[in-house]
Write a structure and sequence with these properties.
This protein is an alpha+beta fold. Helices cover 14% and strands 31% of the residues. The chain is built from 3 helices and 13 strands. Strands 1, 2, 3, 4, 6, 10 and 13 form a 7-stranded antiparallel β-sheet that branches.
Length: 215
């Protein structure tokens, strides 16, 4: 069930016990997309998210998740992907204050990327990170401390982050939990749940982990 998710600096036994007890996000948890692991965009969708082989930052042998949208008003019009399995739980108790990820804009329009959360306190999104059109891989860090989140209809960010039921990655230049309607796409890889000051070091560890995994 956990194939494709790497946990840096966490004992193997802890990961095993966590999987037995039920899904809950862990500090330094890493998603490398060697499997899809519950990332979805809802049904019906003519262009659901899909694994793309040999497309990650390391090139050959490194997969990533491709997310596309077709614009308009129907199903699949919004550029969004979500997870309700491995990326839920108590972010505050786990000491997670940021989400780091490798992102690549595959469309012709600059994207305003955000991480979004739903939970007991309602819906919240991060401040946007701009990813230029047809960008290469960009290492991005999103501040998810309750004080840094923006309400998208929620009333208590701390309550949401203490009991996240859904995490989203989306594009929207305005504050919108649903994501914007656009014809575009992006790739994502190496999502890491980190304590913010450690982001730089964890990107290095992530690269090393992926390098040895591919050998």
């Amino acid at each position: 069930m956990l194939r494709g998710v790497k946990f840096l600096l966490i004992p193997v036994l802890t990961v095993y016990l966590q999987s037995v007890a039920g899904a809950a996000v862990l500090l330094n948890q890493m998603e490398t997309f060697s499997a899809q692991n519950g990332w979805d965009s809802g049904d019906p969708n003519p262009n659901p998210p899909a694994l793309l082989a040999n497309s990650g930052p390391l090139g050959s042998g490194d997969s990533s998740l491709r997310v596309t949208s077709n614009g308009g008003t129907g199903p699949g019009s919004r550029l969004i992907v979500y997870n309700t399995t491995l990326w839920i739980g108590d972010y505050l108790a786990s000491g997670i204050t940021a989400i780091a990820a490798d992102l690549r804009n595959s469309g012709s329009t600059t994207l305003s990327m955000r991480i979004a959360f739903n939970g007991p306190g309602g819906r919240f999104v991060t401040s946007p990170t701009a990813i230029a059109a047809f960008s290469g891989w960009v290492k991005s860090v999103f501040d998810i401390k309750p004080a840094a989140l923006v309400s998208a209809g929620g009333t208590n960010a701390a309550a949401t982050m203490a009991g996240v039921t859904e995490m989203r990655i989306l594009h929207s230049s305005t504050v919108d939990y649903q994501g914007a309607r656009i014809s575009s796409g992006f790739l994502v890889d190496n999502i890491i749940a980190v304590p913010e000051p450690a982001v730089g070091g964890l990107f290095c560890l992530a690269a090393m982990s992926c390098f040895f995994r591919k050998r």
